[in-house]
Predict the 3D structure of the following.
Amino acid sequence: MSTSTNTTELDAVTAVHDQVVAAGDGALVAVPAGGELRIVDTHGNQAVDTLLYDANDIANRYSAFDTVREQRAVYLTEGSRLLSLRCDELAVISADTCGRHDTVGGACSQESNVIRYGEHTRHQHACRQTFLRYGATAGIGQRELGHNINFFMNVPVDPSGGLQFADGLSGAGKYVQLRASRDILVLISNCPQLNNPCNGWDPTPVRLLGWWPR
Ligand SMILES: [Zn+2]
């Protein structure tokens, strides 16, 4: 009998954590080592901006650069090891029914909105505010915000190295799942962006499901 969890067979009814994150809202979830956290794109085409931290040392946070370099690939999918600034493995993508996730496009902020979309967007809510709001209870402030993961977001890199924010590949009910390699904090902003196609021009809720080791 196998001792490993068949991650794709975990049933929502057995989840010990079950949370709907409204469009534009956020969450902070503590996932113990060995725990599985599934992020479900309930309506499709919703970017879920995510930061990971070592729960015992928030300075040891997710590093997009180290993750991309060590896996020698730009996109994230099943099997991707999500590394910290110290190259510790924080989590692994244990299941993925979408197939592609971005970690180079960054999170939206009021400042980036103004630069990209104009002064009239300055007061629109942005992921950076959500990160700060939900991170505060764990001591996560401006200095602890690094480059993030955009689950379900499609940022293709063209042959010349150019980036674009493209229409998403995800669909209703698709999910990505993380297996924590140590005790971690998962800080989520369910992106409120209205000015590019990352949310299909219509931000929608996502569902978080967690299974922790007994
Ligand atoms: Zn955003």
